[in-house]
Design brief:
Largest sheet: 13 strands, mixed
Number of domains: 3
Number of strands: 28
Shape: globular
Length: 435
């Protein structure tokens, strides 16, 4: 088809060109190389325990890898091909030669527990046919996935892009109990991950860290409590705000007013700026901050950062050298002395990746088992947030949200963002219900 298109284009151009030029153009069109599709196979490897830097881990034969969705995405050509794995965990697709991001999504149930089976490989060159036998025999055509237990908590709505006039202080993050049991928020950590903005040249971590065993936090906040002080029941959400203020009263640089009233959220993520602190709103405290602490504000990238929730199971304290130790609970990228919080895969409850726009979806910075895809509002300062897709309701009317650990399909853009969309409830201990 591409060859025919070039030929017709050359023919039309002849009406305005000299005959000699027409002959040259027609010849070039005839000589244009036809791109033939190739058949490629990939093997899905489910592993447990430590995964080395080559992607090798201990295979888990109890995990069923058949029937998983596998997506081949060529972002350069805007091509997407989807298929599913067979009974041997092998997926075969017909694609155009090029560089692909291969993502895997699905779930399985083992001994009454549901696990996500997500993973991804970025910028994989697929130039020749790959048979199922070749894929089964080599890690060169494998996507390693780490079974991740389906947890009750998830990010339900996030507003990071800001409002017109370069107004960014109205960022907020909503955490929702999408499960069937109460979850105690005590000790739960909310981390902004490194690097702060998606990049095609992500940091390199020491080889001994292996592959996809950790994510790395730039800033980590922790919920207060001693164990059972902050219950979050099914259908309830808690909201954290960069600055717990009524931003509808504030103007941006264009004279427009910001649209969010964050003055009644549960917690303010407070870095120490007493002039902007809301004394009515309880403060989350940072327990880790890479480099020096920014005591003016905690601002995440208006182009999109990555975040995760994880549970260390204990109270953490900033600058506690008995806990924060390089190589154990912190790590520095190769060639850098700046340490980042080292968060084990097994402690992660939910994660989400944001990128600048859809052309940067191949710039993921966090492992596919945390988020097989990425979300974007495609601009900044546009009053647009992301919300998780509603797929059902409980008997009390609270929403049930889609959660496949693939934010490309789990989230949709919304203007304007709102708190507690779809009838989510406030926890009974929320200060604003008891003032």
């Amino acid at each position: 088809m591409k060859n025919r298109y070039l030929f017709n284009l050359a023919a039309l151009a002849c009406s305005a060109a000299a005959l000699g030029s027409c002959v040259d153009m027609m010849q070039e069109a005839h000589d244009a190389k036809i791109v033939e599709p190739i058949s490629v196979a990939v093997k899905i490897n489910a592993v447990t325990g430590f995964v080395d830097s080559e992607g090798n881990g201990e295979p888990d034969p109890t995990i069923n890898t058949s029937g998983l969705n596998v997506r081949f995405v060529n972002y350069d050509e805007d091509l997407v091909t989807e298929t599913t794995t067979d009974e041997d965990g092998i997926a075969v697709a017909e694609v155009t030669p090029g560089n692909y991001t291969i993502s895997v999504t699905g779930s399985t149930e083992t001994e009454g527990t549901t696990y996500y089976l997500n993973g991804s490989v970025q910028n994989k060159a697929l130039m020749t046919d790959v048979t199922p036998a070749e894929a089964a025999a080599s890690n060169d055509y494998a996507v390693t996935i780490r079974p991740s237990r389906v947890g009750p908590l998830c990010f339900s709505e996030i507003f990071y892009a800001g409002s017109p006039g370069y107004y960014f202080r109205n960022q907020f993050y909503e955490i929702y109990n999408n499960g069937d049991e109460v979850y105690y928020l005590d000790f739960l950590c909310f981390a902004q991950l490194h690097p702060e903005r998606a990049t095609l040249t992500p940091p390199e971590w020491p080889a001994e860290e292996g592959s996809n065993n950790y994510v790395y936090g730039k800033v980590v906040w922790q919920f207060p409590g001693t164990g059972t002080d902050y219950p979050l029941y099914p259908g309830e959400s808690v909201i954290l705000a960069q600055e717990a203020a009524d931003h509808t009263k504030n103007q941006g640089g264009t004279g427009e007013y910001a649209l969010m009233d964050n003055s009644k959220v549960e917690f303010e993520v407070w870095s120490g700026n007493a002039q902007r602190d809301n004394p009515d709103v309880p403060n989350m405290e940072y327990v880790f901050w890479a480099g020096s602490v920014n005591k003016v504000q905690w601002l995440t990238s208006v182009f999109g950062s990555a975040f995760c929730l994880y549970q260390p199971g204990m109270k953490l304290t900033y600058d506690d050298t008995s806990y924060w130790k390089l190589g154990e609970t912190t790590q520095a990228p190769v060639g850098s002395s700046t340490q980042y919080a080292k968060i084990p895969a097994g402690q992660i409850i939910d994660g989400i990746e944001f990128v600048d726009n859809s052309t940067m979806l191949n710039a993921k910075r966090i492992p596919g088992f945390v988020d097989a895809g990425a979300a974007s509002v495609n601009a900044s300062y546009n009053n647009t947030g992301v919300t998780r897709k509603k797929i059902g309701e409980r008997e009390d009317g609270t929403p049930i949200y889609q959660d496949t650990n693939d934010s490309t399909v789990d989230f949709e853009n919304v203007t304007p963002p709102v708190h507690r969309r779809n009838g989510a409830k406030q926890p009974a201990w929320s200060w604003s219900l008891n003032e």
